[in-house]
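Rotation project, supervised by the postdoc (A.L.). Task for the rotation student: set up a whole-complex structure prediction and record inputs and outputs verbatim in this book. Inputs entered:
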Amino acid sequence: MNRRLLLFVPLAAVAAGGTAFFAMLQREQRGTFDPRAVPSMLIGKRVPAFTLYGLTDADLRGPLLVNFFASWCAPCVEEAPILMDLHRAGVKLIGIAYKDKPAATDAFLARRGNPFTRLARDEPGRVAIDWGVTGVPETYLIDPAGVVRWRWAGALTPEVVTAELQPMLRKYA
Amino acid sequence: MIPELGHFALALGVALGFAQAIVPLWGAQRRDLRMMQAAPALALGQFLALGISFGSLVWSGVTSDFSVLTVAENTNSLEPLIYKITGSWGNHEGSILFWCLILTLCGAAVAEFGDALPTSLRARVIGVLGLAGVGFELFALLESDPFARLMPAPIDGRDMNPLLQDPGLAMHPPILYIGYVGFAVPFAFAVAALLEGRIDAAWGRWVRPWTLAAWCFLTGGIALGSWWAYYELGWGGFWFWDPVENASLLPWLTGTALLHSALVVEKREALKVWTVLLAIGTFSLSLSGTFLVRSGILNSVHSFANDPARGVFILALLGLVIGGSLLLFALRAPVLAASGVFAPISREGGLVLNNILLCSIAAVVLTGTMYPLFADLLLGEKLSVGAPFFNATVFPLAVPLFAAMAVGPALSWKRADLGPALQKLWWAALVAALVGAGAATLTSLLPALVFAASAWLILGAAADLAVRVRLFRIPLGASLRRLGGLPRGSFGTTLAHAGLGITIAGIAGMSLAQSSIVLLKPGETTHLDGYDWQLETLHDAAGPNYAARVATIRISRDGRTVVTLAPERRSFPVQQITTTEAKISTNLLRDLYAVLGEERDGGAVLRLHVNPLAPWIWLGALVMAAGGIVSLADRRLRVGAPTRRTAAVPAE
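Outputs recorded:
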């Protein structure tokens, strides 16, 4: 290669890198790029086998949402009214209380409203490990065949519901 | 009032910075002596303005003026005084202002110590530093104002992140920043040389002390950070290949390469274009490191003040500084013709090998750090690159580097023979081989290889020194006199190379570390690596701004008490964070390390480690930095005295 052109290589490399960073920042601002997010390994796979009192994997035939929550988790309080709205809109919700005392869970649901058609308790948190739950709250969409189609880590917000959840719900209805 | 003074001083700094950038650079272009001679005064003025500005911020912190937003968010009235001071740079706004202060300090230092420089070169160096300074000061003023007021002022502050409330970390950022920003001076020299269109041996001599000074601070800063991670984070490790750690390692690697290639420019007038590129690249990596930490793009424990809007401003700033200098490089570098030719087996040949290997390691680390981001952006793939990748790629490059490092200083300039050089080192090679073989019986192949490399480096440095003073060939007294007469620069090389040997011995030693996690009730004992660890008591204690739970662990060997450690778990009520205070007892050959975890069933979970040679990691870094400082003492004579050059050239 021409020696003079070679001297432009560092500039070109930096320009390419800078453009990529600019794209990352733009998409981060729009919320479509999150370098911190860890994707769920379950997407496109069947729900892992489990048995809790009153709920097994065989019961999960969608479309439905499985919500891991706990009475001790602040974002779950924030999320509660959104789950109630989904419940009123006819979405089937199944709650799994994660590492929570039954009395505390019941008090939480009595106070914030109970959006769940079924409730199971995962007090030791073992089922959550099989699901790869990163924290509470975390929500999974299960399709009619029992396959996980979508996951949201953290509290659901109205934006997430309209932009992501509702299209998925329509698709797997 | 004081914060407003600081704010005004910062604005004044921007104005002076503009003058410092425009007047000398324009003057140098027009060959106007008066304009060029304005540079030192402007640089000192800007430093003064930033000094007043930063001083006001520290004052607001010390007097707990919670009407200042950064003070309210990052300090607390109960905090010890030292953390009220360090709180000034322990947050985004303050650290940017601190950056600017150091940058102006660099400009002032060039103004103060650069009397021997040609007027036009000095004017251009100071002008370039002023230009960079203006960019960061504007960022501080417009996008992250450290003096923003809070109305109404809160009664008390939100306290500093408890992890940062630590004497070691109090000093880590300033030292690291001085290292990062210090590379602005070689950068400015490189850009000035491109503008001048001329690089000669004198340029190499002038740029080296600045590079060396920045390198010493960066070495110290990285070591302090790694030491802090070792004892404060309580994971028992010292280096995690975390993106932010890598961001500090990258300029260190290229800066080390720059240190060596500038030597070739000075002695042989070769590698000019490469050296200029390294100087630009090293400062660019320092800048990018800061950008990546602040933009929140990199996934790291260190990230703070994540704000994409700020990220765009910094990105534009970086684009101007890095892109502008590289454009200048592409256009002007052909002017800098090399005049020296050199043989592959020679001192300069060895230094080229050093550059190739160091830059390859830097390229590998850069790839490993950035690949996950680019894979996410372009392919939508989530992956993480961790220690296995870095260990597998850095190690094969580091081994030839270690092997060549001991030989390099023994070679002469221009043309050398490998035979005699290796002959000087025969006993070092023999001992290194024995150490390696001995270590191989204790541990696996890789650490054994590193132990051998460590012995090779330390003894190779000693052998080189022994040959220079003709130890055992002439009477001991005469050898000692020769030792006193050696140029400090060669002492520096010996120390720095031996220091790296000590560090890698520590790293290899950590591979022999033993650890265990146990649940003990008070009075119970566990065994680890020949030591008996007895949990004596669990009790509560109170600190100035935290409450602590303390475990006392008595460690004994063969029935004799070695030491009693008292690791703590501290809860900070204001920030609602719990930190672990690991406790370490060292005898310089091994660390006994204890961490207190959660308590249950009347007992406590304890994590216990025995880390052989661990302190050597930081001790070696200290020796490396000391080597740099010793070398610097030699340079100082030469900076101002190019005519004395013949007297100060190392014995060949």
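Student's summary: Chain B is about 65% helix and 10% strand.
Supervisor addendum: The beta strands of chain B are 514-520, 525-528, 531-542, 547-557, 560-565, 568-572, 577-581, 583-586, 590-600, 603-612.
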